[in-house]
Design goal:
Helix content of chain A: 55-70%
Number of strands of chain B: 0
Helix content of chain B: over 70%
Oligomer: heterodimer
Strand content of chain A: under 5%
Order of helices and strands of chain A: HHHHH
Number of helices of chain B: 4
Largest sheet of chain B: none
CATH topology of chain B: Ferritin
CATH architecture of chain B: Up-down Bundle
Radius of gyration of chain A: 21 Å
Number of strands of chain A: 0
Distance between the termini of chain A: 83 Å
Order of helices and strands of chain B: HHHH
Shape of chain B: globular
């Protein structure tokens, strides 16, 4: 006996014609974190391009953000049969201030904002992703404090 | 079904208490350890040690209350704690302070893996504060405060 499709769907059989399920909240959280981290890296790179003299001061922080980004990306696993949706591009960072001190203040503000935003993503994350995000947020909080203590030559 | 839900609730509550007791134990160790470290410090470092000792005492009280609210007995502090190395100089005291704060960061990280969203946020905030203090003593920041190397993906 052949059942109509509508009958099979109501019996708990997966609807073969339905689109594949969308990303889980945790995956959406991970993608948002990657975009945010990329934005922070972009901010550092723009500041360093405008103020190469700050490289020695800021490079250690940027290196740690590169590490953050690598860890986050390593957790985004796209199954081979799924067409990967490109990650959204982060918004273009603001132009760095002409003053070196103000430029450091700009990255410090970005660090504080990033740390706060990571905390807002914890609820939707799996336990292990939440721990990674919290650790990254803690790192960003330490960056913000360390940046506020920097004293660039020439102001 | 109700029994299963209750069992899951009990398990979650038990996990919450276990994680909170771990944080309390780390805070107890920090209170004792800052007493050891403070005996070797002077000037601004002694002031910082005193300030952080007060912070850890307050955190200990908060955690004890949180554990008691959940119907459990807060773990008692040990009479004494053995430092991981002899603390007979200012340099060793600074190293001990960094080690203590690293331990506190790791303990708060445990809260971030819980289902309770309030405890997750509390844990993440505790991580940030302790990571900032650890960076103060160490004089540098780290990319992944609290996370063991085994939790990080390579390649």
């Amino acid at each position: 006996m052949m059942l109509p499709l509508a009958a099979t769907a109501s019996c708990g059989v997966p609807d073969l014609l339905a689109p594949p399920p969308g990303p889980t909240p945790s995956v959406r959280t991970l993608r948002a974190s990657i975009t945010a981290e990329q934005s922070l890296v972009d901010t550092y790179q723009r500041v360093l391009a405008a103020h190469p003299a700050l490289t020695a001061m800021l490079r250690p922080f940027l290196t740690q953000h590169d590490d953050h980004l690598a860890q986050l990306k390593s957790r985004l696993i796209i199954p081979p049969h799924v067409k990967a949706t490109p990650l959204p591009s982060p918004p273009a960072p603001a132009s760095p201030p002409t003053s070196a001190r103000a430029a450091i203040g700009m990255v410090g503000d970005a660090e504080r904002a990033a740390a706060a935003a990571q905390l807002g993503r914890l609820a939707a994350a799996t336990p292990s992703l939440a721990q990674l995000l919290a650790s990254i947020a803690a790192s960003e909080a330490t960056h913000a404090v360390a940046l506020s203590a920097l004293n660039p030559a020439g102001g | 079904m109700a029994t299963g839900a209750l069992a899951r609730g009990d398990a979650a509550g038990s996990a919450d208490i276990t994680a909170l007791q771990s944080v309390l134990a780390a805070e107890n160790a920090a209170v004792y350890g800052y007493g050891l470290a403070g005996a070797q410090l002077s000037g601004g470092q002694l002031s910082a040690a005193r300030q952080y000792w007060t912070v850890h005492r307050a955190a200990r009280a908060t955690l004890s209350a949180m554990i008691a609210e959940r119907g459990a007995q807060p773990g008692a502090a040990a009479v004494a704690y053995r430092p991981p190395f002899p603390v007979n100089s200012a340099g060793a005291a600074v190293s001990l302070a960094a080690v203590l704060e690293d331990g506190v960061v790791r303990a708060y990280l445990g809260l971030v893996a819980l289902d309770d969203q309030g405890l997750r946020a509390f844990g993440a905030q505790g991580m940030q504060a302790a990571a900032i203090r650890a960076a103060f003593w160490r004089g540098s920041t780290t990319a992944f405060p609290g996370l063991p190397a085994s939790a990080l993906r390579t390649g």
